[in-house]
User: What shape does this take?
Amino acid sequence: MIASVALATAALILPGCAGTEVREGAAAGQQVRDERAPNARIRYNQAVILSDGLQVKDTKKYNWPISWFKPTPEQGNVGRIAVEEQGTRRLPMGNLQVNVVIRNRDNDDVIVQARSQFFDSQKFPVEAPTAWRNLNIPANGVLTYQENSLKSENIEYYYVEIREQK
Assistant: This one.
């Protein structure tokens, strides 16, 4: 009798242990790790170029005006645009202003879109991202993108996204 009860109990317990555990409900978030994109997470206090189309795959098609500026194979691909400078300053009312200097390395005008998001000292968003704004950067020219936070308290970080015009 004891042996048959033990067999019945084992028959009920063992199938649950043998398979993959199924969990329901909320789960803790996990960081995505991808060897193809080791820096794929948000980089605070940075302006990032999102679009592959803003990256030059063949630098031979461009007529670089100065030979020393022409990229070498060791330097890799050179983008159609580059973030030359970036930074912030506090306005008199306490709002944070972000400034990003973007260089057009192309011989034609380039239209890009940019938007900003602002974060508090714990890196939580304090405002929704701004609307995408079109920026027409003249051929071989420079343009400064500027955006102000709406709030003035507890804003410590920014994140600027730049993409091709949609």
